[in-house]
Amino acid sequence: METQLETGAIAPAFTLLDADGHEVSLSDFAGKRVVVYFYPAAMTPGCTTEACDFTTFRPDLETAGVAAVLGISPDKPERLAKFRDKESLTVTLLSDPERTTLAAYGAYGEKINYGRALLGVKRSTFTVDVDDAGVGTIADAKYNVKAKGHVERLLKDLTA
């Protein structure tokens, strides 16, 4: 059975490389609220829409109490850097080529794509409250989200 995190669950800790090859850990955001989102592949249409929307709405997310947006995919840091630079992204992109963090959050597994079952990344978004000790708690979990309009819906939920 695949993992599905729910509100109140402990957020799996992680340390991954960013687009510049620097380590970023969930615990780096101690005392803050972060959005962690998982996407299939940099520089693809849906993922570009979602990343650009997170960049566009970042000031609004910050006003709603979100300190950082972390986007995680199986892409290598070099590809993430190209994606960030090409699209002028201001979100932090993290590399999970082994898909360990993706699996821990339930964002990797069997999914249906064009009517066929396959293993892949499930577009998912989590709002995580990180306590002063660096331990995250899931404040909200959304699985199998649609890229278009997703960030606006998330922002509406955060400000409701």
Descriptive key words:
single chain, 160 residues, alpha+beta, two-stranded antiparallel sheet
Task: Describe the structure in your own words.
With 160 residues, the protein is an alpha+beta fold. The protein has helices at residues 45-56, 58-63, 77-87, 100-104, 150-159, and strands at residues 15-18, 23-25, 33-38, 66-73, 92-95, 108-113, 116-121, 124-130, 136-142. A seven-stranded mixed beta sheet has the order 2-1-5-4-3-8-9. The longest helix is centred in the first third of the chain and has 12 residues, at 45-56. It is globular and about 40 Å long. The N and C termini lie far apart (33 Å).
Mean pLDDT: 94
Which sequence of strands runs across the widest sheet? 2-1-5-4-3-8-9
Shape: globular
Show unreliable segments: none
Multimer state: single chain
Helix content: 25-40%
Kindly state the number of beta strands.
Answer: 9
Name the beta content range: 25-35%
Structural class: alpha+beta
Order of helices and strands: EEEHHEHEHEEEEH
* C-alpha termini separation: 33 Å
Please tell me how large the radius of gyration is. Answer: 14 Å
Largest sheet: 7 strands, mixed
Explain the layout of strands and helices:
Layout: E1 15-18, E2 23-25, E3 33-38, H1 45-56, H2 58-63, E4 66-73, H3 77-87, E5 92-95, H4 100-104, E6 108-113, E7 116-121, E8 124-130, E9 136-142, H5 150-159
